[in-house]
Amino acid sequence: HELTAMRKPRRAPRPLDVWALLPQSNCKQCGEATCMAFAFAVLQQQRDVDECQPLAEDAAFADRRVALEGLLGVGD
Asked: What one-character DSSP code corresponds to residue 47?
């Protein structure tokens, strides 16, 4: 394992950062009324990224899912 220096300070993700990576379909399959509400819930650790079914199941959103997990530090 190697340590790498951070060159630029990281800011905490904002709801719009999370929302931009979601399908934005407001399908309600996650239990929230909108994707924006889901984004807030994810940041408050009340919901998990896996609860967004389109993001989890649709291959078209695979890149967004990876980017979202990176943004949130999932799996670090």
From this structure: S
The pair of structure tokens assigned to 13 is 């993700």
Tell me the one-letter amino acid at 11: R
Residue 35 to residue 38: CA distance in whole angstroms: 5
Question: Shortest CA distance to 13 belongs to which of 56, 57, 62, 74?
Answer: 74
Question: What pTM, to 2 d.p., does this model score?
Answer: 0.83
Tell me the HSE value of 61 on the side-chain side, using a 13 A CA sphere: 18
pLDDT in tens, the chain (76 residues): 787 776 666 678 999 999 999 999 999 999 999 999 999 999 999 999 999 999 999 999 999 999 999 999 886 5
